[in-house]
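Customer ticket, subject: "Can you confirm the structure for CCHC-type domain-containing protein?"

Message body: Hello, I'm evaluating your service for our small team and ran a test protein. I'd like someone to confirm that this is what the system normally returns, since I don't have a reference to compare against.
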Amino acid sequence: MADVLGGVSNEVLEKFGETILGKVADLIRDVGVDRKKKEKDVEEEKPPKVNSKGIQKNLDFNVKLRNILTKAVALGELDEAVKEVLELLKTRNGELMLLDADPSLLQTKEKLDALKAITGGTSEGSTNQSDMTSLLLLSNMSGGSNRNGGLHMESKRRRLEPYPGRQQWFRSESAFRGHGSARQNGGQGYGNSRDVKRSVKCFKCSQFGHYATDCMSFPERLSEAIEFWGNICSSEWVLSVIEDGYIIQLDSRVTLPEPQGLRPSVLRHKDFLFAEIERLEEEGVLERSDRLPRAVSPLHVVEQGKKKRMILDLSELNKSLVPPRFKLENMKTAWPFLENANFAATFDFKSGYHHIKIHRDSRDLLSFSLSNPPAAPYFFFKGLPFGLATAPWLFTKIFKVLVRKWRAEGIKMFLYLDDGLIVGETEYEVARASRRVRGDLAEAGVCVAEEKSFWVPDAKFTWLGYECDLVAREVRGTEKRMATWQSVLDELRRSVAPSVLDRMKFLGCLASFELVAGDVGVGRARWLMQTVGESQKKMESKNTRKEKSPGEIREIEFWKVHGEELLKRSLLEIEPCFDFLLFTDASARGVGGLLKDKKGCVLWKMSEIGDSNFEEQSSAWRELTAVDVASARLIGQVRGSIQVLVDSQAAVSVLRRGSMKPELHALAERVWKNFESIGGCSFLWIPREQNVEADEASRNFDFDDWGIADRVFKQAQRLWGEIKVDWFADAQNKKTERFFSRYPEFGSSGVNVFEHIPRAERMGLAWWVPPPVMIPQLLKIAKSRGLKGVLVAPLWKSHPSYQALVDSSGRFVRYVRDYIIYEKNDNIFIPGEGSKYCEATDSKFSVPFDSKAMSTAKAYKEENEKRNLWIAQRNLPVDESSLLLYLVDKAKRIGSSALTRISAAYQTANESLSTIGSSFVSDLIRSKRREEIQSRKKMVEVTVEDVSKIVELAMKEDSPAKDRDALLAVLSFNVMLRASEAAEIKWSGVKQKDGMMEVFVEKAKNDQLGLGRHSYFNYEPGSDTDILMCRWRLRTKGKCPYVFSNLDGSVKLSAQSISALSTKMLRAIGKPGATHHCFRRGGANHMRASGHSMEEIQTRGRWRSLVGLQRYIKDVPRAQGCSHPQEMLEDQVEDDEEFEYNK
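Agent reply: Thanks for trying us out. I re-ran your input and got the following:
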């Protein structure tokens, strides 16, 4: 039997122990495997290789620390790793303090590390006390290799050595040549060792690897590397420029500018010029000679803050050059690549332009002298100078070769002249690209300004005046640029009348922020631009002070409030999401708009007719007006971001960037202000076919938008109870809070009430003011459903709707329970925006006279006032019978025409006459006309020959009065002008083209919409008519906008004056008793005799009807298709010309 311990056998215990030990062993093995796997997953990062030994040391140390910490995080052993890193940092700080005391110990430490490596010791991160002792010993042993205390001490000695004394201002040649003592005395101490030579820094070009005495001149640097350029460039022209220099191409016929000496204004910069010329001579950019050059240009100094730049003023020579068109890369070019970039590096050339060699044959075109007038010695540019018109193109063309190479190698880089930018997604990518670019520039002979270059990848960089943060994903102007902008803005705000130059400075600052400010930077500075533009057009001085206009004050305050916010931009271009879409359009007659939600449902619709001048405005003005009207209507109705969609590219451009035209910019400003009250907005152009609904809205107007006077509505509620809902209304004419509309409206209970009958029925007693055409349908539904409502309708007996209101006996239908009839003079109808332009509505409702010509409406109103006064004096009822009595009374003293006017005036303001009344009025007028025939004087006829006589008299006498009167006769006869129309003719409305004259009559009798009428007639250029027109216009000198004015052109003539002049001139040619109206009658009969139709005469003469025209026309054979015998003898040549007198 097995041994038992405590009830458990030994065999079981042994088996349990073996199982436990096996699991523990497996667990230990898994932990070891997992640790090895983690160590394997954590790859050790290798430091990138760079040329600078000091930077390489720092990179090695930093990567080492990073590897220690990365490995510790993966293994979960941070405590030990932190201790190790702290110890390394402590040791590193000790080394740096030691090296600062004696820089030569850097090489000594390298030797010590090499000895320790040979003996098997560790060399990295273990500089203990014994190492320090060894360092000092080795330093003393190697002291003879650097007698001057090392390169660093030599540099300090050179900086402390005073510069050679400069001679006086431009006295002798030696004053411009450098003294080489600082670069020639005292060796560098490292002999000819190659490693030491690599660490030497040139004092001339700031590059490593050579001494100043061995430094080549800037213009020769690229040509010395011609083998490198030949390997990467296939353009023979580029290689020839690099090797031999740039030849300035001048036309042989060009006259070179006169030599110009040193300008007195630059003498205040003489110290700067002295140093700059000395430097350029040392660098080989300038050479002096006593030889007279072909062109001598003056020097100019440009101040950019504290920085100065010497520029050769080649403005005269540049007039002979035509720079090719090309595009410079800038931050806008790089913008799409910055969104995904995380690191960047920047670099800058040293004296970039001077790298481009100028050909020997062209150097004498780029010279200057230091005396005035110019005299020897002359200074010639061997390198490309600032100021040459083709310089930016040439520099970009040459270095495009390197850019093409780098981009072909997958490097994302951009070069704006001599400023470069490298971007990438990873630090390693940018570091690799930086090494490649830096190496290629060195091989190409390009001198890099290391103090301005930042080759180490970083998430923050500054390039072309912008600070970019790739972590915050934001771009903004540099602090210096922002400070300049702020100071210029403050100056504008402080000054009541800033100078034009102050405005130009501010606009220049805004232009430099174009990338971040965008369209707002342009649109919100248009008033300032207009002031500068007007000043430049007048050629005023830049120092001229001008008071700020209201528009300028608004813009300056806008930038004060929003400047800081707008002058920065996020790199993350998030596609905006809009709450609403606003479609707008404009036609020749009006504007339209639709508001839709995100789902495309129409929330609101607008149609509005323009005024009488609307059609004459530009299409851009009309489109902007549509957006202005729509945005104004939306204020207080919606809140949120809106995308405005317009089918006019010109309008979209103005809405985004404003306009230099004040009337368009004022509209844009109103739109911006409207949308500020609503929310954010964006403007987008869409094709016309995508804007059909808004286009239809701009043409389809509601002419039935008339309403009812409030007194009528209140009376209806007193009689029949409270009215709950308005079935046919809009937001302007609604009578109740709840209403149904024709188009989508804010607050509307529904569109088209006939689609919502059950819901409308439940709302209660209805107010029915439908368009007359809908009355039959409404009554049919009301009868079938037993609806209750108050119907307001015109008793328009000639309209189809009247039949639905009365039965066969002429009484109201039986389901009309009660009614009130208002007389027409009660004016219960209120016109809407659309019904004002509806002739039918005007003639029946409250504004019947607006459809008439102004003179006609005035005459009708006067007649009605006289009639009403006559009736009131006799206590007669205001109805048709009183009219008939009034006509009988007036017929005793006035003629048939006056009686006709009284009848027409009554019918315009009231209903048409009854059958009996109409017959009575017709008989009365005909009777009066028969009486007039017996006593009528014979009408004086004015013919084309009479007009010719008037013209001939004017041509003979050469009198201003005769010229004006003759021109009046010509236009009145040809265009058949009334005296009132002739008084309103403007020079802008008279146009001559292709043997035809166009006359615009602003206020014609047949122009109910007030849009004006155009009349045309033929005339011969160079004829007497043409001469008269030109002569009279020159005499008035454009003082008066009207054609017919006083002789001094100060005031236009009245209609009465024109009538008097016409009577006088006709009497002078033997036509006594003739009036101005005889010209109109004579012109109509001349056209009829020439074979023109009645419709053509009616159109040109602006008669409202053929009936009115027929009274002017006399019977002639030609009008009845017969030819006069004399005409047949003359080869049947028809007189189809309008007027033969102007030969």
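A couple of notes from the result: Residues 725 and 766 are 5 Å apart (CA to CA). The radius of gyration is 48 Å. Feel free to reply with more questions.
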